[in-house]
Specification:
It is a single chain. The chain is built from 4 helices and 21 strands. By secondary structure, it is of the alpha+beta class. The chain has 4 domains: 94 residues, conserved putative lor/sdh protein from methanococcus maripaludis s2 fold, CATH 2.40.420.20; 87 residues, Beta Barrel (Elongation Factor Tu (Ef-tu), domain 3), CATH 2.40.30; 59 residues, OB fold (Dihydrolipoamide Acetyltransferase, E2P); 90 residues. It has a 6-stranded antiparallel barrel with strand order 2-11-14-13-12-15. It has a 4-stranded antiparallel sheet with strand order 3-10-8-5, with no helix packed on it. The two termini are 41 Å apart.
Amino acid sequence: MTLATLTIVLFETQFAFAQEGGPPPALVRVATAEMQQVQQKRLITGRIQAISQSNVAAAEPGRVLQAPPDPGTIVKAGQVLVRVDAELLKHQRQAAAAQVAEAEAQISRVKADLALATRMRARFASLVPTDAASKTEFDQAVRDEAATKAELILAEAMLAQRRADLAAIDEQLDRKTIKAPFDGTIITKSTEVGEWLNQGGVVATLIATHQVDAVLDVPEAMVRHLARDAEVSLDVAASGTTPKGKVYRVVPSANRTARTFPVWVRVDNAEGKLMPGMSVDAELPTGNMIEAITVPRDAVQVTNTGAQLYAARGGTAVPVPVNIQFATNGRFVIQAPLQPGEQVVIEGNERLFPGQPLQIQSEQPPNR
C-alpha cells in the first residue's frame, strides 16, 4: 500500500467514525495492574543543607585591590577571590632575594679560600719531613684551614637564614591572595575594592554545592531500616528534580518531643539545582510488608487536577483517578478504583480522552 493510499484509508476511517459520532481508535500498549507484596514506605519531609560552609577570611592585612565575586557566583577550589595590596612586601622580597644572592656569593668565596687552605696544609705536610718547611709553617696552615672551615659553617648558616627570610616573605605574599578553599557558591560578599582588611577579616561566605545533604527527620520506628549507603529517592519540588542519594549519616540523638532522628542523605549536585534551604521529600521504608495494587510508572499521568491513568475497559479508554502511595521497582503503589488483573495504558495515554476506542498493539508481560 502506498503512502497516498494509506492516507486515504486513514482519512476515510476517521470520516466514518466522525459520521458515527465517535472518535477513531487509538493505538496503545497496555500492562496489567497487579496485587503485590511490597515494602511499605512513608513520605518523610526534610531540607537541603550545604555539606560545607566557610567564612573566607584574610590572613594578612591590607587594602583590597580585587573584590570577591558577587553572591551566586560558582567558584572552583584554588580560584582567586580577593587580592590585597602587597607592594611593600614585594620591595622587601627584592631586598631579601639580594641578601640570599650575597650569601650564596660569600659561600662561593669561602669555599675557594678553603680549597686553597687545604692545598697549603697538604703542601706543608709534604715539605716538613724534608726540612723544606718548618713545623711552625705547617701548624699555621692547619689553623688557617680550620678557620676557613668555621667561616664556611657560618656562611652556610647565614645563607639558610636569608633563605628562610625570603620564604617567609613569599608566604606572606601568597597570603595576600585569598583563594577559594573548595568548589562552591558565593552566598555573601563582605568587602569591596579600596577597603582596608584587617587580619582575620571575612571577605566572603562560601558554601559547597557540588554535593548537598538532604537532612530528614525520621521516626524512631523507621531508623533501624536505614543502613549506611542505602539508596534513597528524593523529590525536590522547588528545583523540579527527583534525585537519588545515599544515606551518609544517622545521628543517634533523637528529638525528644517528636521522637525523630536526623538522617543525612548525600546527593550529587553537579548542575547546582539543589540549594540549601529547599524542602525535600523522601520515600523511606517502614519495615512493614503490605499487599497493594501496583501499576507501571508509565501508566500514571500527573495533571493539574491530580494523578490518573487510563484503564482499558470494554475496548475503550476509561479514566481512573489514582492516589500514588510510593514507588517501588519501577512501579507505583496506588489506591484507586481498579481491580488486580485489569489492563492499563502505558504507551499512547498522553493522546487519549475518555471513551476513546482502543486498538491494543501489545501487552507488557506481568511484573513477576
